Amino acid sequence: MSEVKLTYQVDGGDLVQAGEASSKMKMTLKKLGMPAEAIRKAAICMYEGEINMVIHADGGRVEVEVGLDKIVIRLIDHGPGIPDVDKAMEEGFTTAGAAARNLGFGAGMGLPNMKRYSDDMEVDTIVGVGTTVTMRVDC
Amino acid sequence: MNLREIRDILDATVFCGENSLDREVKSACASDFMSDVLAFVKNQGLLLTGMVNPQVVRTAEMMDMCCIVFVRGKQPDEVILQMARERDIVVMGCKQRLFIACGLLYSKGLAGE
């Protein structure tokens, strides 16, 4: 299998329906025959990222590269950026509002979960410009 | 423990997936915070929650869980049930509070890990 590239748009307007892109990616990874554990890790990483995008950045774009031995997920938004990445990585720290909490998110677990399930994660962020989170899941 | 036993122990109503009650689950997870479910679950097949919205189905989907039990008499709407059907996830509802529902299942041998 040569590398497969997937792209998803994440709509910023609807937190209730967020997760559609992660769901589609998961189905595609299954069809491609990727290992089940890697699929689950990649799906959780992207799902938390997608929720973050909708909560904080009014949506964005997700690019996924699927190779033989790894899945790379890049979440790109043009939201407000993250002023203090170290703080944002702490479990329990959140700036999310009631709308997110009402759906079971906004507990300050999103970025820590993405870090937990990826084999490598990089956060490139500029306040006022946007954030790109790149995660690699090894297969 | 299979899903039929879980239904009987909780005296639960099956909202969708009636034909899949032979499925076995070895352990369960209970939380209203979906991020906690995503953080701490490994191979649990069953999710108990008092949170009722489409993100519960998505969380179960991401974690490869095969059954959701809504506690405290909460009623999922058709949007939630349709999502669950599309993902082959069984959905039940019981009247107990979360703590009691967990206790009943745990005392009958369903593990948390």
Walk me through what this model shows.
The complex is a heterodimer of chains A (139) and B (113). Chain A is of the alpha+beta class and 139 residues long. In chain A, 36% of the residues lie in helices and 29% in strands. In chain A, strands 1-2-3-5-4 form a 5-stranded antiparallel sheet, with helices on one face. In chain A, helix 1 (20-31) packs antiparallel against helix 2 and helix 2 packs antiparallel against helix 5. The model of chain A has no long low-confidence stretch (mean pLDDT 94). By secondary structure, chain B is α/β, with parallel strands linked by helices. Chain B has one domain (3-107): 3-Layer(aba) Sandwich (Udp-n-acetylmuramoylalanyl-d-glutamate--2,6- Diaminopimelate Ligase, Chain: A, domain 1). Chain B has 5 helices and 5 strands, in the order αββαβαβαβα. In chain B, strand 2, helix 2 and strand 3 form a beta-alpha-beta unit. Chain A binds chain B through residues 16-19, 22-23, 26, 36, 40, 43-44, 47-48, 51, 102-105, 107, 109-110, 112-113, 116, and chain B through 31-39, 49, 51, 53-56, 58-59, 61-64.
Please provide a brief summary of the model:
The complex is a heterodimer of chains A (139) and B (113). Chain A is of the alpha+beta class.
